[in-house]
Specification:
This protein has helices at about 80-85, 95-105, 110-125, 140-150, 175-180, 185-190, 205-220, 235-240, 255-265, 270-280, 285-290, 310-320, 325-340, 365-370, and strands spanning about 1-10, 25-35, 35-45, 50-65, 65, 125-130, 130-135, 155-160, 195-200, 220-225, 245-250, 265-270, 295, 355-360, 375-380, 385. The chain is globular and about 70 Å long. With about 400 residues, the chain is α/β, with parallel strands linked by helices. It has 14 helices and 16 strands. About 35% of the residues lie in helices and about 25% in strands. The protein folds into 2 domains: about 1-65 and about 350-385, Roll (Urease, subunit C, domain 1); about 65-340, Metal-dependent hydrolases (TIM Barrel). Helix 9 links the parallel strand 11 (about 245-250) and strand 12 (about 265-270). The strands form 3 sheets. It has a 7-stranded mixed beta sheet. A 7-stranded parallel beta sheet has the order 7-8-9-10-11-12-13. Strands 5-6 form a two-stranded parallel sheet. The structure holds zinc ion. Zinc ion binds near residues 69, 71 and 300.
């Protein structure tokens, strides 16, 4: 069964060989979807015959967003903490423990229902691929449980036992690292693709973070790192050294950090929802892009520091406050996220790619930044099926 989406005012393919500029833009375009794949893209007047046609009516189509960083297996609420912070208190990593207590107390069904709710929210805003992590269990049982629940919804599952030292190990952080790299890892590795660590003052230092990542790699997991969010530290350079797919946050960077990213294979994933929601300094996307670093944008959706599931909102912030052009931000939220997940089948609309796309109620992708906060995503196809 093939379907043509025709009369697209502006189609972002993310393949410069197919259209104009780095986004490979095609005007008056059509996309032909066959099964779960893109079969053809080009001008509507040249589209091949198909079983069905959908008229986009002069609106824009973009690849489905790839949200490569979220924390969606959790329970509870941190409204009070947010309210306090917006009244002048600064954010520290310890707030995670509030969510840990609520998550441990929740049933599997409650965690599943919460995850499903936020996934639905993200899908309605155009997200067709998401990564999500454990990290609110911090026991072998609760971390493995979180990963099992996540794995039922996505292939991009990350073991983050090293989110913060478990409260039971407050006086013995090395004992907790031994658990995270030992018994907990054994139980979690079968359910995950990635291993992650929060390398930050108040969480895990460089040596501890390296131990976590290297242990994960010995179990076949690929590293990614929460790095340089709250201050300068060893996270970014460690990420590049171990060949991590992504260093996430990258808010406080030295020139050596930027050089390391520019000369390595690690994507810099920027999470402006976190800076927005904590009133923190913005990451400098312009500095990274000018140095030649591959940049991704993601939501970091979590109940503590960034409770947004909206990739269009992150695009708008990146353009307004982080020095990205609308084209760069759209690329980072689609192809950039795919790069951060080492995927070539998503984040682009090219023949053979997965048929994941969003129809915008706007003539151009630029409107995602030009019209912040407006729900512009009017239809979403995932794996060739219209879901929204
Ligand atoms: Zn995070």
């Amino acid at each position: 069964m093939s379907t043509a989406i025709i009369n697209i005012s502006s189609l972002v393919t993310n393949d410069p060989s197919l259209g104009e500029g780095p986004l490979g833009l095609i005007q008056d375009a059509a996309v032909v979807v066959d099964g779960d794949r893109v079969a053809w893209v080009g001008e509507t007047s040249k589209a091949p015959a198909t079983d069905n046609a959908v008229d986009a009516g002069g609106r824009a189509v973009v690849p489905g967003f790839v949200d490569s960083h979220s924390h969606l297996v959790f329970a509870g609420d941190r409204t009070a903490e947010f309210n306090a912070r917006m009244s002048g208190r600064s954010y520290s990593a310890g707030g995670i423990r509030t969510t840990v207590a609520a998550t441990r107390a929740a049933t599997d069904a409650e965690l599943e229902a919460n995850l499903t709710r936020y996934l639905g929210e993200a899908l309605r805003q155009g997200t067709t691929t998401f990564e999500t992590k454990s990290g609110y269990g911090l026991t072998t049982h609760d971390e493995a449980r979180a990963l099992r629940i996540a794995a039922a919804h996505t292939d991009e599952v990350t073991y983050l036992g090293a989110h913060v030292v478990a409260p039971e190990f407050a006086d013995d952080p090395e004992g907790y690292v031994a658990l995270v790299t030992g018994e907990m890892l054994e139980a979690c590795a079968p359910h995950a693709r990635w291993v992650d660590v929060f390398c930050e003052r108040g969480a895990f230092d460089g040596d501890q973070a390296r131990a976590v990542l290297e242990a994960g790699m010995r179990h076949g997991l690929i590293p990614r790192v929460h790095a340089n969010q709250l201050g300068h530290g060893p996270g970014v350079q460690l990420a590049v050294e171990v060949g991590a797919a992504s260093a996430d946050h990258c808010t406080h960077l030295s020139d050596a950090d930027v050089d390391a990213l520019a000369n390595g294979d690690t994507v810099a994933t920027l999470l402006p929802g976190a800076e927005f929601s904590t009133r923190a300094q913005w990451p400098d996307a312009r500095r990274l892009l000018d140095a030649g670093v591959t940049v991704a944008l993601s939501t970091d959706c979590n109940p503590g520091s960034s409770f947004t599931s909206s990739m269009p909102f992150c695009v708008a912030l990146a353009v307004r406050d982080m020095g990205m052009t609308p084209d760069e931000a759209l690329w980072a939220a689609t192809a950039g996220g795919a790069a951060a997940l080492r995927r070539t089948d998503i984040g682009r609309l090219t023949p053979g790619a997965r048929a994941d796309l969003a129809l915008l109620d706007a003539p151009s992708h630029v409107h995602l930044a030009y019209r912040p906060g407006v729900p512009l995503v009017s239809a979403v196809w995932r794996r060739g099926v219209r879901e929204v």
